[in-house]
Design goal:
This protein has about 400 residues and is α/β, with parallel strands linked by helices. About 45% of the residues lie in helices and about 10% in strands. The protein has two domains: about 220 residues, no CATH class; about 100 residues, no CATH class. The protein has 17 helices and eleven strands. α14 crosses α15 and α15 crosses α16. The longest helix is centred in the last third of the chain and has 27 residues.
Length: about 400
């Protein structure tokens, strides 16, 4: 069993190199199960038939997740977040042009089924349960009274948060269509649309402070309220947050950084053969996206089904007491204050265990996910702050002791 000090395979690890590719070999990946995919992205089993990272723009048919190679850490983090939403989302950190956005959009075909509203306003049965019949639009109130369904089951959505979004776009605003009919209704914002879905904030470090605070508050509470004049509406907002950022363009506030469960470092492809294959796969996809995507349809469908099953069974994954203690010792040794560290570390280890086809978390599972779950959580500023505060407290105590020694006890 490895110790925590042993190095884990990284995207630049020679074991993940494709230098042994032979000319003329097929470029598609053949993955029979989610476990095989996890073996590949963690370096335990490296296929020789891999398509390299793709850097093209978003199309109606997203580039297949299974066609992405390299960037093992990024892909592992995204798979873990899909399998267990309790992890708390993912932040992808790296320079421009390294495929971060492409990778996130490629998750569309792996998203599990979830409950979606049939209504333009996004009315859900839970709105009635929490706020009464007045919490939904008149049409949905009528359907509810008639026993008709307000929702349907379909694939979860990837809700993108554009960089130019306003606060009204994010939380909701007065519906202009309703105003024209002399009614006052609030249009559902992106946060409400992201309920039970994935919210993707590209270049999250460039978003305004108001928008970031709205996202953090909604993510922490699982709901939020909007008031416009005399109208007040509350929305559910349980979503998986995925963000990306280029550190060259600015830092992210520590408060925001701590909210992401996993942080994946995304570097450019260093091997020249890999970069050539990346270009070739981009060309093949651009020439015929439908044909390219179809090559991965069956494997993608199977992995999507496995992710959905893992979501149903994730709470049955057992973490022994000795593994819990090992994780806590690691966090304390690193001097991490945030209790979110334990949540992300243990929930990620449960997801990894489930994807590996096991029921009990082992120390090796912690070793795999620890860099993703614990990096960028330490604060040099806070360490110095607490150290300075301890010195001040000691000075106060020493002074009090000196004064007490000069005061003669009364008889």
């Amino acid at each position: 069993m490895m110790s925590f000090s042993e190095e884990l395979p990284s995207p630049s690890d020679p074991r993940l190199s494709n230098s042994d590719f032979q000319e003329g070999e097929p470029s598609e990946v053949k993955v029979g199960s989610l476990k095989e995919l996890i073996d590949i992205v963690t370096g335990r089993s490296v296929s020789k038939n891999l398509v390299e990272e793709e850097f093209g723009t978003f199309e109606l048919l997203p580039f297949p997740f299974l066609a992405l190679t390299g960037q093992a850490e990024m892909k592992l983090a995204l798979l873990l977040a899909l399998a267990n939403p309790s992890i708390g989302g993912v932040l992808l950190i790296g320079p421009r042009g390294t495929g971060k956005t492409t990778a996130v959009r490629s998750l569309l075909d792996l998203l599990p089924n979830t409950e979606h509203s049939n209504c333009f306003y996004g009315c859900m049965p839970e709105d009635i349960e929490s706020g009464g019949i007045g919490a939904v639009c008149p049409d949905c109130a009528k359907k509810y009274g008639e026993g008709k369904p307000l929702t349907r089951m379909e694939r979860a959505a990837l809700v993108e948060l554009p960089l130019h979004s306003t606060l009204d776009d994010v939380i909701g605003s007065l519906d202009e269509r309703a105003v024209l009919n002399k009614q006052i209704r609030i249009r559902r914002g992106l946060l409400a649309q992201a309920h039970k879905n994935i919210l993707f904030a590209d270049e999250v470090n460039l978003l305004s402070r108001d928008i970031i605070n709205a996202i953090l508050d909604a993510a922490a509470a699982g709901s939020y309220s909007v008031r416009r004049g005399s109208v007040s509406v509350s929305y559910q907002a349980h979503f998986t947050l995925i963000g990306s950022m280029n550190p060259e363009e600015g830092a992210l506030r520590p408060q925001i950084m701590d909210r992401f469960g996993l942080k994946a470092i995304v570097r450019g492809l260093e091997n020249s053969e890999e970069r050539q294959r990346a270009w070739q796969s981009t060309q093949a996809y651009a020439a015929n996206p439908r044909q390219f995507v179809q090559q991965y349809h069956e494997e993608t469908r199977q992995i999507c089904a496995e992710i959905q099953e893992i979501r149903r069974q994730i709470h049955n994954i057992h973490i022994p007491d000795e593994i819990l203690q090992a994780g806590i010792n690691l966090i304390q040794h690193l001097k991490i204050d945030s209790l979110r560290a334990e949540i992300s570390l243990f929930e990620a280890s449960r997801a990894y265990t489930a994807m590996d086809g096991r029921k009990t978390v082992e120390l090796g599972d912690l070793q795999v996910v620890a860099p993703l779950a614990l990096r960028l959580r330490r604060s040099v500023f806070m360490e110095k702050y607490f150290a300075d505060q301890a010195k001040e407290d000691l000075a106060i105590k020493d002074t009090l002791d000196s004064i007490s020694a000069l005061v003669e006890p009364k008889e």
